[in-house]
Design brief:
Length: about 260
């Protein structure tokens, strides 16, 4: 039997992965750091309240290592302490990339061969959301993390509608541009706005298009759960750290696999 990784025990349920404990000062000591704000003026009692909350969350001992007043009536805390919970790696579920990662040249070639025309991408931040940096990182030529954005790809035609686009406005523009793919960004998550807006958007596209002609719908933003695509009615969800090549490769995979979509 191979030796478990540092801080790991073999899975007790016979699964593939090891059981892990967090690492703080020494291997497998279970130490974690947690930050939060309480609606209390900073005081000894406020620090005790922070420790109590951390205790209730399973940290024992819980040490308040940082407390900073945040305006009147609020305090920000960092608490450091031990948890007894373990992670079963074999039970972790994530969305893995299930298509090849293409360089821009390869993506261009695949579109030329598979579609025999340029692929049109319409992008926007919908609802009240004015956080355009994320969608721009994917679409603009300047790109993200050393990769050029979709505008750089010769076979992609990018229409970036910017911030605060209404759902009816997005559908209308998508129809006018004969979009193959619609890329939507949602950064604000207050009151689940990102989820509600996305569901409103996907429902509107289903209403406006017959199934066979609907553009590929992609949503992205830092606080999305990538496993929610079906629930949100979209073809793919991308989260924090997404790079343009991952998105371009997904579009190529999805769209050139069904080249007759827009034959008319
Ligand atoms: C810059 C910024 C702003 C700028 C936005 C400027 C602009 N043109 O975008 C300004 C000052 C306007 C702003 C305003 C506000 N902001 Co602000 N803002 C930020 C900040 C600091 C950075 C966001 C950012 O640019 N990230 C960098 C990009 C590259 O990362 P990203 O968005 O995650 O994008 C990546 C992925 O998520 C993914 N992705 C994103 N979109 C898409 C789309 C697709 C299709 C795909 C494939 C991938 C993808 O790819 C990108 C690259 O990897 C964040 C805090 C933070 N540190 O994140 C707060 C933050 C997002 N803002 C916040 C808030 C509350 C606001 C305001 C409501 C504040 C106020 N009271 O007025 C307003 C709302 C304005 C509005 N109507 O939307 C909160 C949101 C909280 C929440 N839970 O919803 C945050 C988290 C700050 C905080 N901790 O409170 N903000």
């Amino acid at each position: 039997m191979s030796a478990p990784a540092h801080g790991a025990e073999p899975s007790r349920d016979g699964g593939q992965g090891p059981i892990l404990r967090p690492y703080g000062d020494t291997t497998g000591d279970g130490m974690v750091q947690l930050s939060f704000t309480l609606p209390m003026q900073h005081s000894k009692v406020a620090e005790g309240a922070a420790a109590q909350l951390a205790n209730k969350m399973g940290m024992d001992p819980a040490l308040v290592v940082h407390a900073k007043p945040m305006g009147t009536g609020f305090t920000f805390f960092v608490v450091y302490g031990r948890v007894n919970h373990v992670v079963d790696v074999s039970a972790v579920r994530v969305v893995e990339r299930d298509y090849p990662l293409l360089a821009p040249k390869e993506a261009n070639l695949a579109i030329r061969k598979g579609l025999r025309r340029r692929l049109t991408v319409v992008g926007a931040c919908i609802g009240n959301d004015a956080h355009t940096v994320g969608i721009d990182a994917i679409l603009n030529i300047k790109g993200f993390a050393g990769e050029k954005g979709l505008e750089y790809y010769r076979e992609l035609r990018v229409v970036n509608l910017g911030a605060q686009v209404s759902v009816p406005g997005l559908v209308e523009r998508s129809l006018a541009e004969a979009a193959d793919a619609v890329l939507v960004s949602q950064v604000i998550t207050q009151r689940d706005a990102h989820l509600l807006n996305t569901m409103e958007m996907s429902a509107a596209f289903r209403e406006a298009y017959p199934d066979s002609r609907r553009p590929v719908l992609v949503v992205g933003g830092p606080r999305f759960d990538e496993q929610m695509a079906a629930e949100l009615g979209v073809d793919r969800v991308f989260s924090r750290g997404t790079t343009p090549a991952e998105v371009a490769s997904f579009l190529v995979h999805k769209i050139t696999d069904r080249p007759t979509r827009r034959a008319s």
